[in-house]
Amino acid sequence: MKKFIEEFKAFISRGNVMDMAIGVIIGGAFGAITSSLVTNVITPLLAWAFGTRNTDALNITLRAADEAAGTEALVLGLGTFVGAIINFLVIALVLFSVIKAMNKAHELAEKAKKKEEEEAAPAEEEEKKPTTEELLGAILEEIKAKK
Fold it and tell me: Hey, which residues does 15 pair with through a beta bridge?
């Protein structure tokens, strides 16, 4: 049992697990922010555009409640569904923007690294000195020319 607990501690304290836990917490907070944006800003604007008090007016009642029979109303929740779609689109748009920005930053970093490598390469070519074989060949030609 003690070994199990030690292995669990080692697993839980790994960087990836902690990063994932932080991501889940931030994701929950981000979900609350986008839900608030949709519920408190976008949905009222949609209701205003449709000329209703709230998006519940967009719901369609298929069967009214009948207290005598003990049945509840059967409602097709289009307003709620539209809110969920908008919530999804807002989250997807933000994630797309973040990933696009990260890719752009990575691309710029790669270009800067490539540029540094290209600037360093010509300097090495300019300092090219003759090889030993080339020097010996030139000396041999001079000796032959003097004879």
Answer: none
